[in-house]
Design brief:
42% of the residues lie in helices and 18% in strands.
């Protein structure tokens, strides 16, 4: 029997770190293990599971996991995040030079920003083939949130660096059509190397459950309210102000209540807004444990995913697939040409609202509350779309086809 092709999955985050990147890279590695000899280079948990010490090497669900030694300081502090980025990137680069062999296939992600460049260099030095999975597009993600002047020397240098990175990839994976448009515009001569492979919803762990008897709503004493829920990263790209403004506009309508569940750079700002503006119909919670996640996603009548303006193409919200798996209608506050807007319209599972229009959010929520039959039908269509288009098996099949193409070249 011929030896299986070796595939490396390289990511700062991997199981037991099950934030978005860790969850999806773990799923990809394990999903490919039937057909390939899969190994992983990663770090110790540094996000939700920070403090957990996993074995530095273990065989986990047929995947050879090798965790590199690096700092795991508090990522919510700038100095901690910076040192984590430097040490994990350096540690994985050293391991890459040690372990990669000619002909191996390496799948790496764009976060943390330094890591994919070092992995690309290691692949070039060792003769391995490089597959880049883009989760955020640089420098656009930094310029659009105002962290960086797009005309600055640093921004232009980052743009040239990203073009170098793309040129080193044998294949590039993007997560949405808006991202595909942005990336192919940057490398028009190599657009045939860009493949769209979405993320997926966890259809086994996440499924529709009735509001009646929901454990989270019972705990919060929010029975018989029309619940609007935002669940996930509360980051710099997200339109949290639109949500707090909508809460204020609906302050006299006590039947509406908003849940903001998650963590991120804008969470403390939201907490301060709740206090200063007396937003009594807004509850802000920390991320839920995994064993409560299904109940948590089902603790609403409508889910909301909100972005700031001009974010199309730079990031695709993986949370929408689990919202769909839970059978929830979606209120998408986003650019009209974004992947989120496209999915909501294609599947007819909610409303698309432009950023900066909290009054339109309020109008959509009043419409939703007044039409329970329409809401129910949207939720059913959301679950069905997740089962057909955005399931694990479909996504892993796409990864297998991509790798098969590389192997046969």
């Amino acid at each position: 029997m011929s030896k299986k092709q070796r595939v490396w999955v390289v990511s700062e985050l991997y199981y037991p770190e099950l934030t978005s990147t860790g969850y999806f890279l773990t799923g990809i590695a394990e999903g490919l293990a039937d057909d390939y000899e899969v190994s992983v280079l990663c770090g110790q948990p540094s996000y939700w599971a920070r403090g957990v010490r996993a074995p530095f090497r273990e065989m986990l669900n047929r995947v050879d996991v090798r965790r590199c030694r690096a700092t795991t300081l508090d990522k919510n502090k700038i100095a901690g995040k910076f040192f984590n980025l430097i040490t994990i990137s350096a540690a994985i680069f050293r391991a890459s030079l040690l372990y990669f062999q000619r002909g191996d296939i390496v799948i790496a992600v764009t976060n943390p920003p330094m890591l994919p460049y070092l992995v690309a260099l290691a692949c070039e030095l060792k003769g391995a083939r490089y597959v880049l999975r883009i989760e955020d597009v640089y420098p656009e993600v930094m310029t659009r949130i105002g962290m960086l002047n797009p005309d600055s020397l640093f921004a232009r240098s980052l743009d040239r660096a990203s073009l170098w990175l793309y040129s080193k990839a044998d294949r590039i994976i993007v997560l949405g059509r808006d991202m595909q448009r942005l990336v192919t515009k940057k490398i028009p001569l190599h657009k045939n190397l860009v493949s769209l492979i979405s993320n997926w919803g966890d259809l086994d762990a996440i499924y529709p459950k009735p509001l009646v008897g929901n454990l989270l709503l019972d705990k919060l004493n929010l029975r018989n309210r029309f619940i609007v829920q935002y669940c996930g990263n509360i980051g710099r790209t997200h339109g949290i102000k639109d949500i707090t403004d909508a809460v204020e506009l609906l302050s006299s309508e006590s039947e509406f209540h908003f849940l903001l569940i998650g963590w991120g750079a804008k969470k403390q700002w939201a907490v301060q807004q709740k206090k200063e503006r007396h937003l009594e119909h807004l509850t802000i919670l920390d991320p839920l444990p995994l064993d409560q996640f299904c109940d948590g996603l089902n603790a609403c009548c409508v889910a909301i995913i909100s972005f700031s303006s001009n974010m199309a193409g730079i990031s695709v919200p993986s949370r929408m697939y689990n919202v769909m798996a839970a059978g929830k209608p979606l209120l998408a506050v986003c650019d009209d040409d974004s992947e989120l807007a496209a999915v909501v319209r294609e599947e007819n599972i909610g409303w698309v609202i432009p950023p900066g229009c909290p009054n339109l959010i309020v109008s959509a929520l009043r419409e939703a509350k007044a039409n329970p039959a329409i809401l129910r039908a949207m939720g059913e269509r959301a679950r069905k779309a997740a089962e057909i288009k955005y399931k694990f098996g479909t996504v892993i099949h796409a990864y297998r086809k991509l790798l098969e193409g590389l192997v046969t070249e």
